[in-house]
Every structure is written in C-alpha cells, then in structure tokens.
C-alpha cells in the first residue's frame, strides 16, 4: 500500500479527471439505485391501485434516470481511462529516466529481465488498477451502501437476512484477495525470469545456432514458461472462484427471502413489491461486491507491481555532483591506492593500484584474462566507484567532478562494440550531435572505416539493423572506434578495441592514434604486446594487482609477468621481434 501511496503524486496533473470520474460514477449509481425503488412503487401503488397516470409518471422517471445514468457511466469511463493512461505514461517515462541513470552496480543487481517487466507488465498492472479503481471502486461501495440503506428503510423485515449474508460475503472476499495478492507477486517474479531468458536467448541466438543448442534453449524457455503458466493459473483460479462463491451465498439469501413471502412473520405478510425490490437489491449488492472485489484483486495484482516500480524509482544515483568549477579536462590521470570489489564483500578485483599518466601520454594495459584490465578502465568514467583510494583527474578527485563532465571528456571503446539501429552517421555522431561531415570522415579514416563505408551504396546513411547485425565484427569495431574519435576526447580508452581488426588496419589505427590525437591521453587495453609496443608506458596487471609499470624495454628487464607474456607471444608468433 505504501508504494501505491508513493505513486499517488502521479495523479496530481490529472486531478480534474480523477475527481470527475468517480463523481460521474456516483451519478450513475444513484440512478441505478432509484430503479428498483421506482419499480416497487409502480407495482405496489400504480398496478395495485390501477392508477395508470401514476404508472406512466414513474415509468418516465425510470427512463430519465436510465439516461442520466448512461451519461454518468460514459463520462466516468472516458475520464478514468484518460487518467489511468496518462499516469502510466508518466511513470513509464520516469522509470526509463531512472533506468538510464542507474549505476552499473544497481543495473547488475536488478537485472535486465526485471527492468523490462517493470516498464511493461508492472506499469500495465498499475494502469489497470487505476482505471478499475476510478470506474468501479466508487461504484461498488456506493451501490452496496445505498442498497443496504434502502433495504433498511424500505424493507426492514428482510434486513436481518443482510446482517447474516454480508459478513460471510466480506470474509470470502478478503480471504481470496489476500491469497490472490501473494500469487500475483509470484507471477511477476516468474515473468522476470521469462523476460531474462527471452532476452538472453535472442541476444545469443547466433551462439545457440552455432552450438546446435536450439533444443536446449527451447527446453529452458519451456521450463520458465511452464512456471509462469502454473503460477498464473493459480492466481486466476483464485479470482474466478470468487464469483460462484458469492453467487451461492446470495442465492441462499434469495431462497430465504421467498420463504418469508410464503410464511408470513408475526402474522403480517410482506408486500410482493417489497420482496421483489429486496431481491433486486440483493442482486445489486452481489454486483457491487463482485465488482469491488475484482478491483480489490486488481489492486492486489498491482500492489507487488507498484512495490517493484517504487524499488527502481527510489534508487538514488548517490553520486556527489560537481563541487568545483568545471574547467575543460586536460587528461592528467592519477590512481592513488585504488581498490575495488564488485560484490562489496571484501573480494577485491583491484588491489591498491597506483600509477599516473600525463595528458597526451599513450598507456598500454596488459595482463592475463580476468586480471582486472577492463575493471580498471571502467573506473575512469565512474561506471563504478572505487571502494578505497582515489582517482585524480587533472589533480581533482574524480568524485568531485560531475559525471556529465567526466563522461563528456572521455571516449570509451568497449571490448564488445555496440551500435544502435539507425544509420552509420547517427551512430558516429552519437557523442557529438553537431559533428561536421569533415570531422566524421576524418574519424572514420583514422579508424580505418572510411574505406568500407565508401563502398556502401548509401555510404554514411547506410542503415544499421538492431545491434548492427548487418556489419562484420571488424566493421563494427571500426565504427565504434570512429564514434569515439569524433568526440575528440581528452581521455580515450580502448578496451581491446582492435581485436577484430586485421593486422594492417590495426597498424594504421595505431599510427593515427599517435599522429592525430597528440593531446589525448590514451589507455589501450590489449592482450597483444604488438599493439602496445610503442606506447609511453605499459601497466602490467596480474590478479588485480599492478605488477609492472614501464616501457616495453624496461619491463623486459624488470617484470617477470611481462617477460612471460612476451615469451609466450614470441613463441606463438604474436610479437614481431626486430
Ligand atoms: N560485473 C561484474 N560483476 C562481478 N564480477 C565481475 C564483473 N565484471 C568482471 N568481474 C570479475 O572481475 C575480475 C576481473 O575482470 P575484468 O573484466 O576486469 O578482467 P580483464 O583483465 O579485463 O579480462 P579479459 O582480458 O578477459 O577481458 C574477473 O574475475 C571477473 O570475473
């Protein structure tokens, strides 16, 4: 309930609709409640006393009441739909904004599947709850209270029947809605798992095919699908069981009422009109309770969804924003005793790393798989924050520089290139919207991408599919390099960014890095010594520690880990020995 309360401010911009919808519904309910009363009068006075004028008069009132009720009903539907859809759109907007601002730790923790369920199914569930609440929740209790009051004043002899029936009905509703709430939470969790599996299978479809694991994947998907189906079945069954149970109790009530008609109580007979009106009101009470309980069920379904939405909305970005004047970043970088752990349980992936690089320097980073190279460079743009120590950029602790400023000054080419659907041009200008044609062409030339782009019919307008599946791995890597070059960043990070590029092109790119970006501090993570032979300084990583810093020649003299890597690569032909 707390989460629902916290989402209430989203209704503020639509308060007029939110107020009008129940008011119009109240109008409809009042008209609905009048109908049996008017009918009773027609039977007991008009027909009984053969008063045609009275019957026509009451009949006309019934028609007018029906028309007013219709107007109220339509108006309520329009306004409740408008409010629910607008509220859902605003929550979805804020949720996506939050997702875009999630820290890497939180994104890893929550997982893609849950985030997708959040933006789709959870919001849909809240939207339905808002719509039903505005439409039915007012209608249900109003019809219920109205009917009970009318029975109390107009058919008091039969009121004790209500006193027995109503608590039974309420007990059934509360019990089943509680159960439904528990099961709907399980349904949403099963949906998270289904979304995660779906997303993973689609993203890894080529691997699945290459390893002939379609059957295996289909089986895994089947399992999560069956789990979702089973949980949904239970939740839906709880809902569907409600109606027959309520109907059963009401039918017993009706049977008892008819008995009262046959066997007069205390010698006085109850008028037929009163019995008929009472049965009508019993039906209205049934309708009121079923519709209210449907809303209650929808609320129970929306409750876990609202909790899950709130969980993401409440995550703070907990980063200190700029406390100093944002001078353009030159690119001096210093790590002082930096330690970092992903799971924060003391298992450090980086241990007390210290080094410095002056602006314009080219730094190579090498080390075995899993030694912490990628983790180290991810700390530059603060994709993760350090646990101990500090990172200084131009002499300032990077935590005191705004994320926007830091990230705006860093170009990052990730290990696995990621391009967006759109054109080559839209991808190249992703980090610099106002980049000129010349800037784009120069960046592409330096990344050895110009040659293949010129061969495409639409050149820079060539359309890319989702994840650029219509390009080769090497082409994607070149475009992703060019995209970083276009920004002319002060600090450029290349995380194994030329691994899919042929040796000749790699040599051209490395030359271009030196000649075209003399003022840029470049960090090049590479598994090949040949890619970092000419850099100013090489950092050698082993199991999260920095075990060597120096030029290629210095490290060959002083660092055993580097010597081993070198020997292995010479033997396998990976390093050209002069
Ligand atoms: N998001 C993450 N959550 C938890 N652990 C992680 C995460 N990313 C990496 N690790 C762990 O951190 C360690 C260092 O990984 P990292 O990717 O930095 O290594 P690397 O030297 O770049 O390896 P490679 O050369 O294979 O890319 C590994 O043990 C890895 O399992």
Automatic annotation (TrEMBL):
**What main location does UniProt list?**
membrane
What sequence ranges are listed for the domain ABC transmembrane type-1? Answer: 19-301
Q: In which compartments does the protein localize?
A: Cell membrane
Q: Which residues form the ABC transporter domain?
A: 333-568
Membrane topology value: Multi-pass membrane protein
For this UniProt record, give its keywords in alphabetical order, as a comma-separated list: ATP-binding, Membrane, Nucleotide-binding, Transmembrane, Transmembrane helix
The answer to whether keyword Nucleus applies is no
Q: Where are the transmembrane segments?
A: 55-79, 136-153, 159-176, 238-263, 269-291
User: What SUPFAM superfamilies does the annotation carry?
Assistant: ABC transporter transmembrane region (SSF90123), P-loop containing nucleoside triphosphate hydrolases (SSF52540)
Superkingdom of the organism of origin: Bacteria
List the Gene Ontology MF annotations in alphabetical order: ATP binding
**InterPro entries per the UniProt record, alphabetical:** AAA+_ATPase, ABC1_TM_dom, ABC1_TM_sf, ABC_transporter-like_ATP-bd, ABC_transporter-like_CS, P-loop_NTPase, Type_1_exporter
Instruction: Cite the PANTHER family for this sequence.
Output: ATP-BINDING CASSETTE SUB-FAMILY B MEMBER 10, MITOCHONDRIAL (PTHR43394:SF1), ATP-DEPENDENT PERMEASE MDL1, MITOCHONDRIAL (PTHR43394)
Task: Output this protein's name.
Answer: ABC transporter ATP-binding protein/permease
Q: Which organism is it from?
A: Metabacillus halosaccharovorans
Taxonomic classification: Bacteria, Bacillati, Bacillota, Bacilli, Bacillales
